[in-house]
Amino acid sequence: MIIVMKPDYDEDDLLRIVRRLEDMSLRAHISKGEQRTIVGAIGDERILAEIPMESFPGVERVLPVLKPYKLVSRDFKPENTVVSVDGLDIGGPRVQVIAGPCAVESREVLEEIAESLLPAGVHFLRGGAFKPRTSPYAFQGWGEKALEFLAAVREKTGMKVVTELMDPRDIELLYKYADIIQIGTRNMQNFRLLTEVGNIDKPVILKRGLCATIKEFLMSAEYIMAQGNEKVILCERGIRTFETETRNTLDISAVPLLKLLTHLPVIVDPSHAVGRVDLVPAVSRAAVAAGADGLLVEVHVRPEEAMSDGPQSLRPQPFLSMIEECRRVAEAVGRSL
Amino acid sequence: MIIVMKPDYDEDDLLRIVRRLEDMSLRAHISKGEQRTIVGAIGDERILAEIPMESFPGVERVLPVLKPYKLVSRDFKPENTVVSVDGLDIGGPRVQVIAGPCAVESREVLEEIAESLLPAGVHFLRGGAFKPRTSPYAFQGWGEKALEFLAAVREKTGMKVVTELMDPRDIELLYKYADIIQIGTRNMQNFRLLTEVGNIDKPVILKRGLCATIKEFLMSAEYIMAQGNEKVILCERGIRTFETETRNTLDISAVPLLKLLTHLPVIVDPSHAVGRVDLVPAVSRAAVAAGADGLLVEVHVRPEEAMSDGPQSLRPQPFLSMIEECRRVAEAVGRSL
Amino acid sequence: MIIVMKPDYDEDDLLRIVRRLEDMSLRAHISKGEQRTIVGAIGDERILAEIPMESFPGVERVLPVLKPYKLVSRDFKPENTVVSVDGLDIGGPRVQVIAGPCAVESREVLEEIAESLLPAGVHFLRGGAFKPRTSPYAFQGWGEKALEFLAAVREKTGMKVVTELMDPRDIELLYKYADIIQIGTRNMQNFRLLTEVGNIDKPVILKRGLCATIKEFLMSAEYIMAQGNEKVILCERGIRTFETETRNTLDISAVPLLKLLTHLPVIVDPSHAVGRVDLVPAVSRAAVAAGADGLLVEVHVRPEEAMSDGPQSLRPQPFLSMIEECRRVAEAVGRSL
Amino acid sequence: MIIVMKPDYDEDDLLRIVRRLEDMSLRAHISKGEQRTIVGAIGDERILAEIPMESFPGVERVLPVLKPYKLVSRDFKPENTVVSVDGLDIGGPRVQVIAGPCAVESREVLEEIAESLLPAGVHFLRGGAFKPRTSPYAFQGWGEKALEFLAAVREKTGMKVVTELMDPRDIELLYKYADIIQIGTRNMQNFRLLTEVGNIDKPVILKRGLCATIKEFLMSAEYIMAQGNEKVILCERGIRTFETETRNTLDISAVPLLKLLTHLPVIVDPSHAVGRVDLVPAVSRAAVAAGADGLLVEVHVRPEEAMSDGPQSLRPQPFLSMIEECRRVAEAVGRSL
Asked: How near does any CA of chain D get to the CA of A3, in Å?
């Protein structure tokens, strides 16, 4: 950490800082330039981050030098983490596809959707049992009944189940039914939820918050890993910008950036990112080309009857074509799909 | 709701839409212009919002006409809601000040801070028992012990206690200790938490999410009111923009806009909005001038020792001066403080 | 255009609106619903846009139905526009690459860079003669001398010259030297500059403004086309968001969205979008996969000596590898490069 | 400037950096910590900014220590700059109001508007002769004829004329007619325009760009001052965010922040910031409370007939009431209006 002193600081200010650093077993390295005096605080940046250095008299600005996360960092673990679900790898050479409806509506419709996905080689079925909805008057999900439908379809098709946790009180229920637990975008900084999924041994998909920085996103993954669960899959799903033609703006550079900063697998949700079916195929191809380890796509047999997110749900036929295109792009970048 | 048809739609597309609307007991009003055909869907907009009209063949775009919220709307209740805590009104002619440390650190420090606030006429003490922190390695709050300290200081000073709920499992605990329960910015769309505070009879401060639109903010308030709790206080606390000199960007126009759209009281948190003490007084004055019903301010006797948010915590002396300035501004706009 | 009336409007308000519309030879279609009365204003949306309908008494909101642009719209011209420069097509099946330094520094360095690009099959050389720089103390470009260097390198290598216009007074000079004139991101709404390049017959690359919506971007292209110049190439180059790890955020969905809305070619500048060489190859592959018609890349033989934008300039070797990767992706999506 | 080395840098990397710094007569101060080695580059930060340090092998990150601007900085000139126009001070104890229509429409309407402003004590009349419009089909301003109308109204009322420069070729014309020249938000980084107004001796209002950071805003002011014109007035006019209920988001904290960083006067344009008349009075009061030196307000006698920006133009009566309210707030913060 670099502490930049104000031009008019006095020696007592400097002494107070040095003393505080030494109290915490940190070292201070002072450098007096022509225009500014600078203190290099040497030691564990996580301890340093806890001292409100900006509040000390004479301090102009504080510049962190090291990253605030550790376990998720590629510095800490250089090789890729591969999250395995019954032999299906996420983060390995094969790009995995997770697909299905936004919300589980009925056993019949879910089955119909699942079967439409099989020809594309999809092994993971998504479907919400508990739905975080902006409106209190909107459909909130069928809860445990939906989980039962998901389990029944898993039984029948062999597909793995991905579903979202919204409430720490539901963790045992979800643990029982899900193969992968999803933490939604609105809960990326729901730290109690992160702690709960950190304490289990199931893979977790952590979706990036709507306006979370990459650093905050990684800090949330660090929360989960700090509890002991190393099976974290990061999901870029679009951030909020001023643009209104798309639901959100897919931050495509997040894919290579995350692969650089962390060893964790990175997948992309093109459906929430753009919010309109006519753009989903193009951004899915882009995600694969940029190095994503997987796609999380909303598919519905009859979007006009969907109880949630119809406008961004692909019909099976365009979905199959899109997967074909993505497969060719995957091969072009040395992967399979 | 207005449904704009594509230029090349066919009559079956139109029929299908009309039939679907009629199935839901809504009326369709068709208007064929030179360049576009438009369907006016007439009826309850909340029912309409549930139909994924964009997914119907032939539809180009859907434009909502009515607001998606009802109970929070000034159309629904034209007169101001005043939330009363033991005779202290929030939303009345007097601008209320809620102040205190970010986190409760020790009983002694809390008492010292509370006493420093009394000369300013502050009746509400804030202090976090459970702290949502970006880093898993940061101080997470003292939990129930902190609540006990808050209660002890209330006993001694008569100040009302404002503290944050982070987990639905803590609702009974907080209900016991707090006079006002705060829902933090990261939990504005934690719908389970909103439902919990909707089911109690204590006042709730709902903080605007970091990148929540005004409409989403009001929908979250609607969640609480839809459960039966009408004592909702809205808090603008800065939104995330590209600017990095301040922690967030205070959306000052949110104050008059919310007062226009809703009957609920609106307060401002200048501390989180700007994140630096040197700007807090000016934006506090601005908030009062714009019509805010209250201020939520971080104050600490020794910010350089604060366990959280030191850089944005005012010391007592500058806080007192600021309150003096705000009082004069309040009077200039016909209120007291 | 849809005009939504306030719940408490009176009949005179409605009459005044109808009369104003009729005065402009537009038609009004009134629809009275349970909660709102709506006026459909039928006629040329561009005329409608000029009437400040929101200022009429009794009006709550105005919703545009049609797009405000015409000449650039795919509705107006369904087939792709291909911009040809001496037989080299931009917007055709081949993805074109434009590469070179940010600023032209010396004839020798420019030549060295140009020659390093030839093995990649690059036919277009970029290089700034006039540089828009944030700081008045930064290098502003060598002006006409730089244009002469570009012309000399064109002579020697056969590469086409792409360079930026900053000032309407330089149009004749640039016309003389450039094969394609670039309008930079800061000038996307410099309407006088748009008018100037609209009056010539050379191809124009129009870069999207840092925080321009897609609609505004297309309106700026409309400015150029409205003057008669149809050779407009749109360039997505990253928008400004809250993320600070990258210089900007590449809006990858802008590529398919623009291809949907307009017939004009769309290229991507990955260098300015991310601002760091370690991410340029991944986002370039993504751009090609998403359907971009070209790439605009900063390349320098010795970035550490570059007079501008060193940190985002690729060295020749990584650039060649990246082009190889992009070629494979282009083929995967049915194109060449 | 602080240069943070990668963990795996080698000694040659360090030597190369030290040598480059010494070549530019700068000093290097090396500090080896447990986890990172850091180089403090000591000397003129503006020279440092020109070296692309991130491009040197072994460099992880570069952190600037000093501000990149000088002439505009309060460090450079601690006392407030007061810009005087014929004895009317901007930046002094009195808050100045600049008001008028968006565009000059006719001499009669301009006169009518000007006369309606006089009872409010307004001494500055705004009105556009050249209008930057998003659409090529929108009214672009009457040009020199509008300037003549402005001059005629000045003659009659004694009001000073504020009008916008869009093209460097119009500088002589505007110099002849205007008392204050405005640089619009879209031209904040039109560096040729900044250079032109830097070379004259008239006051300049520089509007903040739609998504300009405070640092970029000040760098643009530095451009003007670097040419010799010290009469620069900064204008905050709203930035672009995700919020769509208002045209832009007024960054109220920019007012005290700019007053801290620079000695230049700071005014606020509430009309463009919010874009709707119902919010203009509240944010105007906020601006005055936050310390703004002036307001720039759109007023029109008949907004429903305005040729530009009708929806955000106040009618004279509400404008007078608003000025009365602002005057009381000004007095509450120790100023007059």
From this structure: 10
